[in-house]
Amino acid sequence: MREAILSIDGLSKTYASGFSALKNISLEIRRGEIFALLGPNGAGKTTLISIVCGIVNASTGTVTVDGQDIRRNFRAARSRIGLVPQELTTDAFETVWNTVSFSRGLFGKPPDPAHIEQVLRDLSLWEKRDSQLRTLSGGMKRRVLIAKALSHQPTLLFLDEPTAGVDVTLRQEMWALVRSLRASGVTVILTTHYIDEAEQMADRIGIISKGEIILVEDKAELMRKLGTKQLTLHLAQPMERLPEALGSYALQLGGDGSELVYTYDARTERSGISRLLQDLEAAGIDFKDLETRQSSLEDIFVTLVRDTDPP
User: In this predicted model, what pLDDT tens digit does every residue of 150-200 receive, in sequence order?
Assistant: First the structure.
């Protein structure tokens, strides 16, 4: 197993009002992976990121970034982190080049025009380097935020809802950039409401709900463990009700009686499909087509979060 670049141990955050935003979170992020943190609004995602980045102090627990404690060695730990926040907070009258170069200087790094140029080119910002930020589109401004986060060459990059409000083309370009960053050795932690992106991009998935991590799993293993499959049979003749002989199967009629839907556990090796098809034939039920569908990460996520809600 790869070494951890980020170690979180027993992390809790309780505000003066008594609100408990995080509850005893322990988590390790592996060097060089893409880790997706999913959770509904108010689950604690942004609070967790803020503590790791040293913006908010934890009530209890420790955070170590690349071997540096975020509280005892703040400057050393923070210099290893790049953060792309949700909010488009930029100096409207500054140029792209100056904004990104200044951000590098904030971390005590010497000027490196070649690195700044490469970052801007990778983000398709090179042609806009002399433009004031106020003249840029929302998507371009978000690219500038990513460029700022990469200006000091961090080893750990947080992307907090990085593609919110951008078009499909830009989203695809950004995810190509994320892949290239991972290939260059940067560890990426992202939060997103686009669960399909997490399913496509992440190596591991963490789900947070009500300030607690309720699951951390390799994406493929999560899909294998919790995924279900559906077999949909398109019937030759519509049915009003299911025959009693098929009562032992988890069957549902759909499509105004023209579809028969069989839901089964993807974990089991023997799904019973062959036996079902034999019993359908014995019952005189013909079908003209069939299709299968496996549950998506979104289905799994909704199920897990719903299961943590009080009855």
Answer: 999 999 999 988 776 666 777 777 788 888 888 888 999 998 767 777 777
pLDDT at 311 over 50: no
Which residue reads 């294998």 in tokens?
A: 224
Topology (CATH level 3) of domain 228-294: Alpha-Beta Plaits (3.30.70)
Segment (H or E) for 260: strand 259-265
- Round to whole Å and give the CA distance between 260 and 269: 22
State the pTM of this model. Answer: 0.75
**Which CATH code for domain 4-223?**
3.40.50.300
Q: Rounded CA gap, 84 and 103, in Å? A: 12
Strand order in the sheet with 204-209: 81-84, 156-160, 187-191, 34-38, 204-209, 212-218
